[in-house]
Design goal:
Elements lengths: L2 H11 L8 E5 L4 H12 L1 H4 L2 E8 L5 H16 L4 E5 L2 H7 L4 H20 L3 E3 L4 H14 L3 H4 L5 E2 L2 E2 L7 H11 L15 H16 L3 H23 L5 E3 L2 E5 H4 L4 H16 L7 H13 L5 E4 L3 E6 L2 E6 L5 H8 L2 E7 L2 H8 L9 E5 L8 E3 L6 E3 L6 E3 H7 L4 H4 L4 E3 L4 E4 L3 E2 L11 E7 L9
Parallel strand pairs: 1-2, 1-4, 2-3, 4-6
Antiparallel strand pairs: 5-6, 7-8, 8-11, 9-10, 10-11, 12-20, 13-20, 14-17, 15-16, 17-18, 18-19
Length: 459
């Protein structure tokens, strides 16, 4: 069977394409995407397809990237297919968004593909993942400790994305292009084994093929079998609903503890994805940790997993929360709860403060301005925060102060702290660090007033 018949059969088996479909073809100019582009062109008349090619110049490889762009434009012109091009500085975008370049590139590509879908009124995006990519993903996820979901690898159809080449391997693609006498671009960064996936692609998979020339196909077959099993778990998980409210997800442990472990795991993953819209960094070890909370039902026990998600068992209920961390906007809002005044210290005022003649009010503190390092900031508590509690420099965990003061667990996460660059100055309304106390050498006094309700707003 030639490659085109094989791909056509796979398209039918997975119900990828309907007659008259409009498809955005992801075309980087590399061997895989060129093979995908040619195959869909050959099937264009049979299915009555409408095609548009989409190319993203990531501005990573300089002149080489510009040459790839020019190649794609020529290819589209040769086959009478319109080409849409986006030129985007991926390294700069990655830095701005605190992403890896790989994550940023993928995000930019798929956003661009969806823009083109909307522009042309098309419903599908075709990408060129093939069987070697599937094998690479399965091995990568296996190494990371993924469960069945990760070992399923790459799906042939997901939402609007189709992958017609998943039934063929890299060698078949190269042979097809050779027969068609079509050249393609080579991205030299794909050979850099500093990247984990490249090491799997260029070192591990070739070694597996030395052991068995059909290794890629066998791993692909196992992946397909696991996909069928996982689909059964997903279907069963549909019967169990969790409660969603703001940044919180919850479900009764008793409702799910008797289910098959893999169904529970799928429910946990859905709760996580509902919270943060992703799940790729969740490993089998994370899921096992969550499962222990459900099965042991130890009230008060909690764990922390990627994406700043805190998970705990609260009286038989599994609860997932996004931990409260202050970004710039939150810090600005938090600051509205405080008023800071700088006062020139005179001997009489200092003496009165030291002798406690001025009431030590719970919501008003006066400290030595000169002892503040790097300026005053306001934020929420973070794991491991401590405060100095005596003149010897002894410290106490903020979490312990909350327990001693019987502060509700939920309130602890959003309890305002006053800090400088290195230390907690004041757990507002609870504890002031003596490291900032006023003494005879104080030159300026910093008066901090805390308003549990902001001054310009009533409860």
């Amino acid at each position: 069977m030639n490659i085109l018949d094989k791909i056509d059969g796979y398209i039918k088996k997975e119900n990828m394409i309907d007659a008259g479909d409009g498809i955005v073809v992801a075309l980087s100019g590399g061997a895989d995407s060129v093979a995908l582009f040619l195959c869909l062109n050959k099937l264009r008349e049979k299915y009555g397809l409408h095609l548009v090619a989409a190319h993203v110049n990531h501005m990573i490889r300089g002149e080489e990237a510009d040459q790839d762009e020019e190649y794609v434009r020529r290819l589209g012109q040769e086959y009478n297919v319109p080409v849409e091009v986006l030129k985007k500085n991926v390294p700069q975008f990655a830095k701005e968004m605190s992403m890896t370049e790989e994550e940023a590139g993928r995000y930019i590509r798929y956003e661009f593909f969806r823009e083109i879908e909307k522009k042309y009124g098309y419903k599908k995006v075709a990408v060129a993942h093939h069987m070697d990519d599937l094998c690479e993903t399965v091995i990568f996820n296996m190494i990371r400790g993924s469960g069945i979901k990760g070992l399923v690898g790459i799906l042939p159809v997901r939402d609007d994305v189709i992958r017609p080449l998943l039934c063929v391997d890299k060698e078949e693609i190269k042979e097809f292009l050779k027969e068609e006498n079509v050249t393609y671009c080579i991205d030299k960064t794909n050979f850099d084994t500093d990247y984990s996936r490249n090491r799997i692609r260029n070192v591990i998979i070739p070694e597996l093929l030395k052991i068995n020339s059909k290794a890629v196909y066998h791993i692909g077959r196992i992946s397909n079998s696991l996909r069928e099993i996982n689909e059964g778990f997903e279907k069963e998980a549909d019967n169990y609903k969790f409660i969603s409210k703001d940044n919180k997800r919850s479900i009764e442990c008793a409702d799910i503890k008797e289910l098959d472990k893999n169904i529970r795991y799928e429910i946990y993953l859905r709760m996580i994805e509902s919270l943060v819209s992703k799940r790729k960094d969740i490993t089998g070890l994370h899921l096992e940790s969550i499962d222990r909370l459900v099965l042991k039902e130890e009230t008060g026990k909690s764990i922390k997993i990627p994406y700043d998600i805190l998970i705990r068992n609260s009286y038989g209920k599994l609860i997932m929360l996004i931990e409260n961390k202050c970004d710039k906007d939150e810090a600005a809002l938090l600051q509205r709860h405080f008023k800071v005044e700088i006062i020139d210290a005179d001997e009489k005022l200092i003496d009165a403060i030291i002798k406690k003649e001025i009431p030590d009010e719970r919501l008003v503190k006066m400290i030595d301005f000169g002892k503040i390092k790097g300026g005053i900031e306001f934020r929420y508590p973070e794991e491991g925060d401590t405060i100095v509690i005596d003149s010897k420099g002894s410290t106490k965990k903020i979490s312990r102060i909350f327990i001693d003061e019987k502060i509700d667990r939920e309130k602890r996460k959003v309890w305002p702290l006053v800090v400088d660059s290195n230390n907690v100055i004041w757990v507002s309304g609870l504890r002031l660090s003596p490291a900032f106390h006023i003494d005879k050498d104080t030159k300026k006094i910093c008066k901090i007033t805390y308003y549990p309700v902001t001054p310009d707003r009533k409860e």
